[in-house]
Description:
- By secondary structure, the protein is mostly beta strands.
- It is built from no helices and seven strands.
- 0% of the residues lie in helices and 32% in strands.
- The strands form three sheets. A three-stranded parallel β-sheet has the order 1-4-7, with no helix packed on it. The chain has a two-stranded parallel sheet with strand order 2-5.
- The protein is globular and about 30 Å long.
Amino acid sequence: MGIVIGETTTIGNNCTIYHNVTLGGTGKDKNKRHPDIGNNVVVGCGAKVLRSNKNR
Length: 56
């Protein structure tokens, strides 16, 4: 409940995502603009994982 996952986000295997997490992006580009989450990752509640074009 309360999880936002951007359309180009990639999530690996064996991940736990708690409530109120945002895996989003900034900007209006049409290419890959959301974060990648690897394998065996825990994303804590309230986390905001954002990716912008500046992170490339």
